Automatic annotation (TrEMBL):
<dbReference type="InterPro" id="IPR000412">
    <property type="entry name" value="ABC_2_transport"/>
</dbReference>
<feature type="transmembrane region" description="Helical">
    <location>
        <begin position="55"/>
        <end position="77"/>
    </location>
</feature>
<dbReference type="GO" id="GO:0140359">
    <property type="term" value="F:ABC-type transporter activity"/>
</dbReference>
<protein>
    <recommendedName>
        <fullName>Transport permease protein</fullName>
    </recommendedName>
</protein>
<feature type="domain" description="ABC transmembrane type-2">
    <location>
        <begin position="18"/>
        <end position="244"/>
    </location>
</feature>
<feature type="transmembrane region" description="Helical">
    <location>
        <begin position="98"/>
        <end position="122"/>
    </location>
</feature>
<keyword id="KW-0046">Antibiotic resistance</keyword>
<dbReference type="GO" id="GO:0043190">
    <property type="term" value="C:ATP-binding cassette (ABC) transporter complex"/>
</dbReference>
<keyword id="KW-1133">Transmembrane helix</keyword>
<feature type="transmembrane region" description="Helical">
    <location>
        <begin position="164"/>
        <end position="184"/>
    </location>
</feature>
<dbReference type="InterPro" id="IPR052902">
    <property type="entry name" value="ABC-2_transporter"/>
</dbReference>
<comment type="similarity">
    <text>Belongs to the ABC-2 integral membrane protein family.</text>
</comment>
<feature type="transmembrane region" description="Helical">
    <location>
        <begin position="219"/>
        <end position="238"/>
    </location>
</feature>
<keyword id="KW-0813">Transport</keyword>
<dbReference type="Pfam" id="PF01061">
    <property type="entry name" value="ABC2_membrane"/>
</dbReference>
<keyword id="KW-0812">Transmembrane</keyword>
<feature type="transmembrane region" description="Helical">
    <location>
        <begin position="20"/>
        <end position="40"/>
    </location>
</feature>
C-alpha cells in the first residue's frame, strides 16, 4: 500500500508545472543567470582566488531545497487536510502517515535531483569544480534536505488551511533565502553577521557545503547545528501537526 501511495504522489507532483519549474528548473536557471555576469566568472583575491559563481553553486543547491521544503510541500499537505483527505484515510488500511511519508520522500528526492542538476550545470557551463570532498558534501547535503523538509513540515503543522500555509511559507522563505546566502554569500558577510547566520540551519548548511566543495570535511559545528535544527523542527512538527 505504501508503495502505491508513493507512486501516486509522485505522479501528482509530476503533473504540477509550477512545482516542477520552481523546484527543478529555477535553481539551475538562477545559476545560469548569475554565470552570465562577466565579473562573476573572474577570480577574486577577496575570495581567495575563487569566483563568485563558485560560491553560488552551493547556494543554488540550498535554493532548491528551500523551494521544495517551504514552497512546494506545505500547500499540498495542508490542502489534503483541509479537504478532509487525511481524515478519510484514517478509516482505511492506508494510514495518513503513509501519505505524509510519501510527500516527504517525493519532495526530498526532487530536491536532491535539483541539487544534482545545479552541480552539473555549474560544472559543464562555468567550469565549477565538482565537490572535492564528496562524502562530506553528501553528508551536509542530506542533513540540509532533512532540515528543509522538517521546516516545511512545521509550516504544515502550524497552518490550518492551504492559504495560511502559503502565507507562512512565504514569510519563512525570505529569511531562509538570506541566511542561505542567495542575496549576499555567507562567506563575504561581515564577521558578526556571519557568526549569527551560522547558527541558522541554512547558514550552517551553506558553510558546510562550501567547506566540502573546497576539499575539507564540513565543520562538525555546522553539521551539529543542522542536526539540532532538524531534531527541533521534527519535534515541533510532530507535536503540533493535526490530521484534521
Amino acid at each position: 500500500m505504501n508503495s502505491t501511495v508513493l507512486k501516486t504522489e509522485a505522479r501528482l507532483f509530476a503533473r504540477e508545472p509550477g512545482s516542477l519549474f520552481w523546484v527543478l528548473v529555477s535553481p539551475a536557471l538562477l545559476l545560469v543567470i548569475l554565470g552570465l555576469i562577466p565579473s562573476f566568472r573572474e577570480p577574486s583575491d577577496d575570495l581567495g582566488g575563487l569566483r563568485v559563481i563558485d560560491l553560488y553553486v552551493p547556494i543554488s543547491v540550498l535554493f532548491a531545497l528551500i523551494m521544495s521544503g517551504l514552497q512546494a510541500m506545505p500547500p499540498v499537505l495542508t490542502g489534503y487536510r483541509e479537504r478532509g483527505i487525511l481524515r478519510r484515510m484514517s478509516t482505511t488500511p492506508v494510514r495518513p502517515s503513509a501519505l505524509l511519508t510519501a510527500q516527504l520522500t517525493v519532495h526530498g528526492a526532487v530536491a536532491l535531483l535539483s541539487a544534482g542538476a545545479v552541480i552539473a550545470v555549474g560544472r559543464t557551463a562555468f567550469g565549477v569544480r565538482l565537490p572535492q570532498q564528496p562524502a562530506g558534501y553528501l553528508v551536509a547535503l542530506l542533513l540540509a534536505v532533512a532540515v528543509a523538509l522538517a521546516l516545511g513540515a512545521t509550516v504544515c503543522a502550524v497552518s490550518r488551511t492551504q492559504k495560511v500555509a502559503t502565507a507562512v511559507g512565504s514569510a519563512v522563505f525570505f529569511p531562509t533565502m538570506f541566511t542561505a546566502g542567495v542575496w549576499v554569500p555567507v562567506q563575504v558577510m561581515p564577521d558578526t553577521l556571519r557568526s549569527i547566520v551560522h547558527l541558522t540551519p541554512f547558514g550552517a548548511a551553506s558553510e558546510a557545503l562550501d567547506n566540502a566543495a573546497a576539499g575539507g570535511w564540513p565543520g562538525w559545528t555546522h553539521l551539529g547545528v543542522l542536526a539540532l535544527w532538524t531534531a527541533l523542527l521534527t519535534w515541533a512538527a510532530a507535536r503540533w501537526f493535526r490530521w484534521e
